[in-house]
Amino acid sequence: MSIETTIAGLKRAKAVCDEANRVPVAKRGMFAMVERRHSYSSLLHGAYAGYVGFTPCIVSSVDRSGIVKEVKLAGQSCSLKRRDWQQVNVDSAGKVANPAGVCAALVDDHGHAIEYRDHGEAIRAIKAAAGLS
Predict the structure, then answer these.
(1) Computed from CA positions of residues 7, 9, 15, 21, in that sequence, does the dihedral angle turn out positive or negative?
(2) Contact by Cβ (8 Å): 90, 29
(3) How does 28-51 read in b/e, with b if 16+ C-beta sit within 10 Å?
(4) Backbone region of residue 23 per phi and psi (left: phi > 0; alpha: psi in -120 to 50; beta: other values)
(5) In CA terms, which of 3, 20, 70, 93 is 20 to 30 Å from 13?
(6) HEC string for 15-46
């Protein structure tokens, strides 16, 4: 094995490693959508019944590696921690230009964030509020 083939192999390995480490990083103020699982006991539906809700929010805290620690729901002063959601989807591509405006548009009559039961419906509402097609 020659030195040139070893160097070429190391360069390929470095390129693969760099590509794998390129993870989208979340920052404060970014738009996000939280997926929360709600469950409750019910006599009608058996031991447990529940649903999954999708709620638009704004990232309020991230850790050093860029993973979301806390989000703030639209129209509410309280925030959600990591333990409160199943999954969070962050707009790391920056397609939503005005996250605060979009969150303000997605509140109900009582000033609380609208929780969608369907993922597709939530995406359509977000795109309509952001002016995306």
Answers:
(1) negative
(2) no
(3) eebbbbbebeeeeeeeeeeeeeee
(4) beta
(5) 93
(6) HHHHHHCCCCCCCCCCEEEEEEEEEECCCCCC
Backbone angles phi, psi at 116, to 5 degrees: -95, 140
- List the one residue out of 46, 109, 107, 113 whose CA is nearest residue 80: 113
What is the model's pLDDT at position 50?
75
- Intra-chain end-to-end CA distance of the chain, in Å: 55
pLDDT tens digits, 23-56 = 667 889 999 999 988 777 766 666 666 788 898 9
Angle, alpha carbons 83-87-89 (nearest 5°): 130
Give residue 69's pLDDT band: very low, low, confident or very high (50, 70, 90).
very high
Q: What's the alpha-carbon Rg for the chain, to the nearest Å?
A: 20
- Residue 44 pLDDT: 67
User: Which residue type sits at 42?
Assistant: S
